[in-house]
Write a structure and sequence with these properties.
The structure holds two protein chains of two kinds. Chain A is an all-beta fold. Chain A has a single domain, classed as Immunoglobulins (Immunoglobulin-like). Chain A is built from no helices and seven strands. Chain A is elongated. Chain B has a domain of 94 residues: SoxY domain (Immunoglobulin-like, Sandwich), CATH 2.60.40.2470. Helix content of chain B is 33%, strand content 36%. Chain B contains three helices and nine strands, in the order H-H-H-E-E-E-E-E-E-E-E-E. In chain B, helix 1 crosses helix 3. Chain B starts with a helix and ends in a 5-residue tail after the last strand. Classes of the chains: A mainly beta, B alpha+beta. Chains A and B meet through strand 4 and strand 5 of A and strand 6 and strand 7 of B. Strand 4 of chain A pairs antiparallel with strand 6 of chain B, so a sheet runs across the interface.
Chain lengths: 103, 163
Amino acid sequence: MASSIRVRATSNGDITEVQTLIQHPMDTGLVKDAKGEPIPAHYIQELKFECNGKDVFVANWGTAVSKDPYVKFSFKGGKKGDDLKISWTDNKGGSDTITAKIA
Amino acid sequence: MTTTTGSHPTRRLILQGAASVALLGLGNLPFGASFALAAANDKYPEEAFKLKNEADAIEALYGRTAEPSDKVKLDAPEIAENGGVVPISVTTTLDKVTSISFFVAENPNALAASYKIPDGTIPGIANRLKMAKTSNVTAIVEADGKLYSATKEVKVTVGGCGG
């Protein structure tokens, strides 16, 4: 099964730039479906990036983050070939994890 | 005239005293909560995400108010054609940044996203947010225990909440 997380982490000497795209509906709970029934809220609450056993970035999200969320950030201390572990959990207890190599 | 100016210092003192007492009283709970948050570090700020008002959400998340700063650069489009996907990014030249949060004032819940910036991570984030309608977007940067903000209005032609 394909992962819900797509990540590109590129090292530029000292700084590693991370771009992440996650497939997730990010339903707000305010939208109604075709039958007029409200679609229950379903959204990622926490997204965490770890490199070499240390948190490098933690996102706490509400429903106002777009569907299939994208986030970009950079950090120091990563090298080419290091593992970057990305994990998310949503409000329904769903989660996914992936480990990417810094390129 | 002289009597009014003469009475001012005392009145101001009393007001200040009252204000700080009130602040202390009010501050106790949110402060406790935010310190607990900071200590636990992984805790999801459930309450702050539920609040409708931007000022309330900032208070719940940080227990303080922010001051506008030109060291916080908020990059957002003037006009967003699709409120469902509004690219918003923030960078700052401030030192010792520990967190960055995004608020959309007119959304059903003002707090959109809050990011923790550990030591060594560059204080710059790009993400995409939903906007219900034309609204001010505020980025708050927590640096060295203080809050700094930047605000920009984004005009939305089609809302991102089923509109």
